[in-house]
Every structure is written in structure tokens, then in C-alpha cells.
């Protein structure tokens, strides 16, 4: 039972008086209400869960790479801690146990019940042509298809904050590359700007994502730049922090040195990759002798390709 | 007759809907599999520098980006007429192997296990379809604990990959001409430490947990039975001729294994939202014209067929074609073969690591040819993946991808043959139509990844000349 105890113990630290009072009342009334110890335990869990900040995650024209990247997080904490102790993940297409009608019922319930309270995380860009038919999130409980285009509008209108996780959601990404066959848009084009936090990179950097979620919960909207990106992570160009800045120029791929002459997009791209690196600090693109392909650049891929300038 | 529709199917990658008709005894008599996303990747590739394809096509799928990277680099090197060195081959194998292991662990614990166990009583594990939980409470709790441990295991598999990949998901170091990364004694040792930890996880958690579930749900050895056709392109080259692989390529039909003839691969679109003129095409000259309102169609996936027949792909196909697994083709066989494959790959990686030369970078700068074609065939964790490229004026003029889930989750073809998942669903009894857990179990056993299945190539350009039918490996 280690798993469940851990989650309860951590949550007890932030319990509310009303909840404690309710549980006390429930415990003293247990016999009269016909509640067993197991029922009480369940009640406690339900209350603990509902007090955690709700998060809904939806996917549009994406590859799930940002969801996978979330699972890789280690700083400021690991994903099991996030899921068990910090947020209540109401829906996630890759992680939710439920499917189909029950899943849609749940989203529709959460939308109404938690109006203005939940954090919406959007992965992927939003196809708009063919009435949005190029991406269907699911079949609504009334039997109609819920397009990604409609889902973003419905959910964003009721969300407290919206996170554009990754370059596709933030800026359109590869699905928005020329010729943009499905006419995708990014979130800023269809959601009120003061709600959206843009977290570009392909995939989203998991440290950026989890730190932003925790900041939104604890203190609110972080300071953003003109592109809607948190200044904490995107205030300087990659090149400004690059440990190879000023070293001798690499003449070909695979050599140590500054790759400015090989098509490196570090001088164009605002992101703190040299500081956070990737995969628990194991490596990063330039650390493996490869130029930055500018995956966090607003014009990725069109404005930064061809990636190799030789 | 009643219908059950599961839309969305969760705990897969991408957007998939399953609709089945059931008879009065709740037996499935007809099934439809619908891919619900179209991005137009292959159209976006047209006109770009061919080398960019290695980075762009990885973004087809965040779960198996390395497989697309490898298929793409194979297609490019085939077109360029280049053979990578042993050092580059081994580094690529190690990156791909790490991705296979991460994906298999993710699939079993985080995408499939919740169909068999009672998860934690909190979101996102509630609500659920748990109508048929058969494990003892201690078995159940052990697998829940391992669900959490598996989050760490798959993360570590990605960290292991990143040592040579630069980052995960989406690799930076692999490009035509070799790899950019230079292994060092330190990075090789670090990789080895990760690998030992992961081998321990596979041997002492993953495989025992799959066996526990297989024992408790032994009826699933006769549920979700395949159509008897298995296909693999083969993967993990063990020398640079491409003839000797950890998993050989081949075709299995009702117990008989034969050689794969790549020219027999065709795609059909009668039931897909594409113009009918696109049908019955080999991917080297396939065309794709999205027609979102086409009547009678029900999926964004095309229907790939081999010699006109639907084929199942994946770990079970690879393990069966290689003689490593011989039990059968069913839901539980897919899970067992996948777990055993993870172990086989992990042990092979131990050997490959010893073959690396520290401080040696293997990269040759290649000139982009003016006009060529190429094909790259490899395997993703969930099955065979192929990329077909044509280059004109040193730019991409044609690019076509066929992904494993396009085969497994395909709709009907022009002859009315159902896709493998559609076929495997027929005959299944659904105990509770409100919570059709049996259908989820069957669909999940294929590890579908529909983001991968999105398709389009340029309709107005057919490049047939110079096409090399025999793949590079």
C-alpha cells in the first residue's frame, strides 16, 4: 500500500479545515450512515483529489512527443510526484484509464464543474480547414464529433490558464510548415492572449512545463515576453549561454567547436538549453556536436531550414 | 444489432476511434477502426533539403521518433549510395534499441496494464473500465508499484539514448553520412550503467508482471486472434552489408516463413478519406489527395496490403519470423513477445556497446545528389516502418511513409478485407457494453500509434524513373 499512503500523506500537508471537519463528521456519523472504514478511506481520497488543482490535457496535430517529454521530467521533480501530489490530471489522452463515452462525459463534466478553475494544456496545433475534420478529439456525449478546433475554443473559454506545450501549439510547428495542408493555427490565434503561456521547443522541455504548471498553481501567471514565453526560460538566445561561444569554428559536423558556420540556429533561438540541457542533464544537441535546428524558434521549420548550411 | 463506439481510444498515441456492431449475445460481428488525424507531413517535405527529412519525419511520432529517423537516414543513404561505418551503425543501433525498450515499457505499464489491474483510486486512473479484475490484491499492488517504477525505467531508457542521441524524444545526432556524436570511455561506461539497471528492471519486474497477467487472463491467448499473416522489414544491422540483422526480415503466413518482396506492398483507399485515383499504388509512386467528405470512407489511414492481403506487424511478428516466439497470435502473445523482445534487444546492446571505439567520430560529409530515389526500411517498436524518397534538383520531390499502425489499424481495402485490428475484434464477446474492456484490451495489444499513421504524398508528381526496388537493408 506504499503507493496510496504516500499520496495521502503528502496531500495531508495542505488539507483544508473544511475537509478535515467533514471527515471528522463523517467518521462520527459512519455507523449511522452505514459507512465502513474502507468507505471512509475512499471519501478521504476523493476529497484529497478534488482539492488538487485540476489539469486537462488535449492533443491536436501533434506527435505525443510533448506528453512523452513530460514523463522525462526530473527537475524540479519527477512525473510520479507531479501526478500523485501536485495536480489532479482530469484527462490525458495517453494516461487516462478511461476511454470513449465515459472519457468525454468526464471532460464535459469537468468543463462545467470546474469552470474558470482548471489549467488546460494543449499539445499540437489546431487544424481548421474542412471544418476541423482533420483532427477529431473524440465523440461528444451527444454523438457529434468534437473537432480539435472546437475543443480548444470550448475548453480555453472556461480554463483559468492555457499552456501551449511545445512548438506546434505555441507557433504551429511542422503541421503548420509550408504548404500547411490542413490550415493549422496555433493557440494565440484562437485563444485570448492573456491566458496562454507559450512553451516552444520540439518537444516541450519538461522542466519548463512542470515549473510553469507549479507556478500557475502557486503564484499565477509568470512574466511573459512579447511571444507569450516565460522570461525565466526564454529571455536569452541559446548562443548567449552556449559554452562553445567563442571557441574555434567547427569545420564539419562531429567536430568540437562553434557550429555557427554549419547552420547552427543557436544565434537566432531564444531558449535556455545550454543551462537546462535535456534528459536529466545527460546531453543536449550542441553537446553531441550537432548544430541547433531551432526547434523553439517561432518560424520552425520554414524559417530555420535547411538545417544544414553546407 | 447494437453498436459500441469507443472514441477516443485513450492510452495510445494519437487519435483513434473503434466502432463495433454486436449481435444479441454481445458478440462482435463487425468492426471499424478510424484514424482521426491528418497532418500532411509528406506534403510538407516537398521542396526541402533532403537532409532535413531526418529531423522532420521524426516528428511524425514522439513515441518512436528514432525509428522514423532511421528509416529516413536509410532512405537518404540508399539514395546517396552511401554505406555508414560500423561505428555509426553501432551507435544508431544503441539509440534505436534504447527507444525500443523505453517504448515497450511505456506500452505495457502505462498504456496497457490498466486494462487488467485496479489502478490507484485517483485521477487520471479514475474513472475506469475495471469490470474484470482478476489479480489478487498483492499482485495488483505489486504492478501498481511497478507502474511508478516503470515511469523511472522508461525515463532512464531515454536518458541512456540521449547519451548518443543528443536528446529524446527527437534525436539530433543521426544524419546522412554517420553520426555527429563522439563516444568516450566515460559515456560508454555511463551507457553501460543505465543498461544494467534497465536489464534488471526487465528481468525482475517487466517480464514477471507480464507473466502474472498472462496467467490470470489466459483466455486472452484465444481472444484477439490475428489473421495469421505477420510481416517484418527487419532491424538492427549486425554488419554493414545489411544482410545480417538481429531481427531478419520476412513474411509469415499461417506457419510458413518466406522472403519479403518489397515491390508487393500497395496501399488502398476505397474506405479512406482520399481520392479513389490514389488507390492500389506502391509507395514509390503513391499519391494522396485528401477528400474529407468522401462518402463511404471512415479513416485517415490508408490500407497498406502485402500481395493484396492485410498483415499484422510488431514485436510478435519480428519474434515469430525469427523463431524466438512460437506460441500463437493473440492479445497475450503480443504482450509476451514484446516483453521478451525487450530483453533480447537489451542483451544484444550489451555486446554492441563493447564494439564501440572510444574517441572515434564517424561522419562523412555527403553531397546531396541532383536526382535519385531511395528507400529505407526498418522497424519501430510497434512494427515495420518504411520511407520512400525521390530527389530532384537536389530537393525532395516525393516522400512517402508507411507506418506500422497504418497496417495494423487500417480500414478495409478495396476488396473489403478488414485491417488486422478490425479482423481481430470480430467474434469477441463484450460482457458490459457500457465498459467494453475486451475491445480496449485487443486494440491496446497492438500498441497502436496513430500519429504515425498520418499520410500524404504529393499527388501531382510521380517519380518512377531510377527507382531502386531493392531496399538498402
TrEMBL record, chain B:
Asked whether the UniProt record includes Metal-binding among its keywords, one would answer yes
Q: According to its UniProt record, where is this protein located? A: Cell envelope
Q: Is the keyword Oxidoreductase in the record?
A: yes
Which cofactors are required for activity? Ni(2+); Fe cation
- Residues bound to Ni(2+): 61, 64, 449
Which InterPro entries does the protein's record reference? Ni-dep_hyd_lsu, Ni-dep_hyd_lsu_Ni_BS, NiFe-Hase_large, NiFe/NiFeSe_hydrgnase_LSU
Q: Which family does it belong to?
A: Belongs to the [NiFe]/[NiFeSe] hydrogenase large subunit family.
* Protein's name according to its UniProt entry: Ni,Fe-hydrogenase I large subunit
